[in-house]
Amino acid sequence: MYSLHHAAATGDAMKVREIISAGVDPNLVKYVPIHDGIFHINVTPLFLACKHNQLDVVEFLLENGAHPGLARFDIDTSPLLIACEKGYLDAALKLICAGADVNQYRIRDKTYPLMVAAENGHCEVVEMLLHHGAMVNVITSSNMTTPLYIAAQNGHADIVYCLLLADTKCDTFCTPTGATALFTACHEGHLNVVKRLVNAGASITLGRLSDGMTPIEVANLTHHHNIVKYLENAQEKRFSSPTQ
Fold it and tell me: CA 71 → CA 129, 140, 146, distances in Å?
């Protein structure tokens, strides 16, 4: 039998229609072989269609009873989360318009769709999620990071800017060591991110709680001397400004 899951994954919309019309449950969960590991995953056809960006299949399944929030059971990853991780804007938007919760997180580590979009540099997806009410100051339970910290760590200055416009808190202490977004941007050498954060008012003196290291100190330690110079100039301007 030609599998509904195979048809969904490969984008065979005609076969998907035929199988669903024959009475197969669009929310059927099945173990499916994958090529990127030795395991099988317990998924719905909608999850596979979203993972492979099969938009016609995604639309048909949603119109015919597929639940937009039904997650992959073994790792609790929703169709929206996988679409946002891959950067599939249209698939993510179709899911949200069909009722998917923009703030549905992966339970085992509290990873939100906004976080995976921010991590992978999908700015348009981030903007869409923010437009539909994604919460910006959420924190993962696994490594205690926010969307802003994740974007800063990965050097996505455009996403950092979008998050700052959405009233993200600049100086949240993240990770078990208590590091700020500015601290990690300095550590990784992302000057454009550093500029975005400083211009938004991020503290130049707050860095990492565990040892008290400042952003300037970590930039110097990691030999990002352009960042050291920029921060020293920014700090001098703040101290000399009558409004500070």
Answer: 18, 18, 22
CATH homologous superfamily of 138-244? Ankyrin repeat-containing domain (1.25.40.20)
Sign of CA dihedral 143, 149, 152, 157: positive
What SS3 state is found at 33? strand
- Backbone phi, then psi, for 91, in 5-degree steps? -65, -45
Give the distance from CA 18 to its chain's centroid.
35
Return the pLDDT at 244: 47
Q: What is the pLDDT of residue 35?
A: 58
Residue 60 makes CB contacts below 8 A (sequence gap 6+) with 13, 16, 17, 20
Report mean pLDDT in 10-residue bins for the chain, 244 residues: 84 96 92 59 90 97 95 79 98 98 93 97 98 96 94 98 96 94 98 98 93 96 97 91 57
What are the angstrom distances between the C-alpha of 152 and each of 181, 239, 240? 6, 25, 27
Break the chain into its structural domains and give their ranges. Answer: 1-101, 138-244
Tokens of 161: 């800017």
Q: What is the rounded CA–CA span in Å between residue 188 and residue 212?
A: 18
End-to-end CA distance of the chain: 71
Compute the distance between CA of residue 184 and CA of residue 171 in angstroms, rounded to an integer: 12
Q: What is the CATH topology of the domain spanning 1-101?
A: 1.25.40
Give the count of alpha carbons within 13 A of 62, CB side only.
Answer: 24
What is the structure's pLDDT at 40? Answer: 54
